[in-house]
Amino acid sequence: MNYLLDTHALLWSVQEDDKLSKKARAVIENKENRLYVSAISAFEIANKFRIGKLPQYEHVVENYVQIVQKLGASDLPITAEQGHFAAKFEWHHRDPFDRIIAAQASIENMILISCDEVFHTLPWVEVLW
User: Fold this and answer.
1) How many CA atoms lie within 13 A of 75 on its CB side?
2) Which label site among 12, 20, 26, 80 has the fewest CB atoms less than 10 Å from its CB?
3) Measured between alpha carbons, how far is 37 from 53 in angstroms, rounded to an integer?
4) Could you tell me which of 115, 79, 109 has the C-alpha nearest to residue 125?
5) Structural domain of residue 105, as residue ranges?
6) Cα–Cα dist 83/70, whole Å
7) What is the pTM for the complete model shown?
8) How far apart are CA 24 and CA 34, in angstroms?
9) What is the pLDDT along the chain (129 residues), one digit of tens a residue?
């Protein structure tokens, strides 16, 4: 199966494993699953660290590429199709990071690993937590 890690799922899998659900942890640890991390997560983590919202994740910011590789995840670039879809679909949630991740999960037919309830309002995104 192909899974897309929401930004918090990536952070928690690296540094705060106890915050992951049992299901999420099992999927992430199962090497038969294919894990992906959106390029928008790299931007979100570094940007939020820079503005002081994620001070505890300096190690992740400084070692992002190696951490994603060690996790066994692959980068998921943002395509024009995904960006376009993220901007146009109807959703009350305006967070651009979540919109991109939702669009990627949908277009790439991936299960999204997230505890964020807001994704459950999208019938075309399968969420695991």
Assistant:
1) 11
2) 80
3) 20
4) 109
5) 2-128
6) 28
7) 0.94
8) 13
9) 999 999 999 999 999 889 999 999 999 999 999 999 999 999 999 999 999 999 999 999 999 999 999 999 999 999 999 999 999 988 888 899 999 999 999 999 999 999 999 999 999 999 999
Structure tokens at 87: 């901007």
CA gap 111, 103 in Å, rounded:
12
Contact at 8 Å (CB) between 24 and 61?
no
* Domain containing residue 75: CATH number: 3.40.50.1010
What is the residue whose two structure tokens read 């992002």? 64
Q: How many domains does the chain have?
A: 1
Residue carrying the six token digits 């299960």? 111
Amino acid, res. 20: L
Which of 72-77's residues contact partners 24+ apart within 8 Å by CB, and which partners?
Answer: 72/31, 72/35, 73/5, 73/10, 73/35, 73/36, 73/37, 74/34, 74/35, 74/36, 74/37, 75/36, 75/37, 75/39, 76/4, 76/36, 76/37, 76/38, 76/39, 76/104, 76/108, 77/39
